[in-house]
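Hi C.,

You asked whether I'd gotten around to modeling the 559-residue construct. I have! Everything is below, sequence then structure, no commentary in between.
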Amino acid sequence: MDGADETSPEPLVARAQEALDAGEWLTAKQAYEQRLEQGEDAEALFGLGVAEWWLGQTRASLRHHERAYALFHREPDPEQALLAAFWLCLTYRMSMGNLSASQGWLGRAASLADEFDLGPLGALVLIARADIATDSGRPDEAERYSREALRIAREAGEIDLELCALSELGAALVELGRVEEGTHLLDEAMAGALSGDVVGLDSIVLIACLTITSCSRGGDLTRATQWVRAADEFHQRFGSLHLYTTCRTAYGSVLFATGEWELAEAELQAALKIGTSAEPALQAEALAQLAELRLAQGRPEEASRLLDGHEDHPAAIFAIASLHLARGDAAIASSLLRRRLRDIDQRSLTGARLLELLGEAEVALGDRSSAATRGRDLVDLGAAVGSELIAARGEWILGRVSDSAEAAITHYGRALSTFRAHSMPLAAGRARLQLARGLVAGERGAAVAEAQRALASFEAIGAARDADEAAGFLREHGITPSRSGPRGIGVLTKREHDVLELLGEGLSNPAIAERLFISRKTVEHHVASVLSKLQLRGRGEAAAYAVRNLGAERDSAQK
């Protein structure tokens, strides 16, 4: 083929599409741009928009997809127009956080599906509706849409559509609190996507983002970590900034919940760095999560600065209400939470978390009756959908409003058991401290022991405000709190404890990574942190230290 042929429209588009299919985004972008220099073309505009999205050039991608839609609609080519509208619907919501524009493009896609007989492509409209419904706090609607999309896809034998619909259904079920049922579907969709069953790389991104976010929300922290690792391998091959930012934000949330706050900070800061230009919607989520971390660290002013300008973003409501509550503005927190709860399904994981915080605000306002209703509703909901975490949130609130120490001890004990089982040290530590308050009148020794364990937990993760509260409780009851020194095991995070224990067994970094389902780089970070915090000179000293100290520490914790 001579030079003239290679630069003619058809070979250029073919070369660009080949590069797009292979994930060679820059090559595809350059070929599409070269084609467009010869004149406007809908197919080239659409492909250019896809390449730009993968490269993190989100606003340019939106412009070119919008122009492609207009040309496809004019030709007319309703199938391609619907695909363009679908891309625009998801990008405006997932990347830009513009729900109004997303809804508008969903409307255009739905109109095309209604006007023309587009076969299984109509399932895309249902998938988009399910995606928006789950994210907007209406998982019951999402379940209906995704089940219908799944039926259409399976009847047509469209594997991409089937796995996307399956992941949407799994995400909806998780948000409804049916975590085990939902995660099984997400696992199936993710396995199919990464095994090569899925043709479109964009479909893999959608499925992976849903899986990782849902596992994080559902409290399945081990599963979330495993899928983050798999998604990171995909990112290293194909470079999806959206998936990368989603992984960093979700993983940061997991690390925050499990008490690994230094690593959580690193993940969230990485998400913010990318999200500033390419993913503003995910940036808002990362900022909100980082603000929650700052509040837990006892740094409310920094939390306030992080949230500035994001007051109306749904992802920030929990953090903003928590900030008002920490400052003593319970009435403002209550108002914000009530307003948000009117817009979402309260029988969802998101709703349960907001209801728990509303119960805390009502306790602060002296409205014990309303708070008790919140607690009972959460316990009942947790039992109905099989969610231990939702029930534990309810038990926590019921403990706060109990009329007797005996009842409070029962409720806090149930909450503590669940929070410990889910490796949530901050929540578990707070339950321990409240349990100590309930025990102190009749079982002072047990109360002191629980408060000391709570203090150790708070110091291990860096929860300064909670640590001060626990130390204050101990002083009130005649105990001088023993604060962790530089060589105390209490300065280690839970994951660092795990690494130290495996060092004591003589495991190498690769073996530790495999045992804990984390990367070798993360193991290296943990080992360095353990050596620094415990002032040890190498792995040999760390192993000896673990053998001498962890057995006794473990025996004490189990008492």
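If it helps when you're writing up: The chain has 30 helices and no strands.

Thanks,
B.
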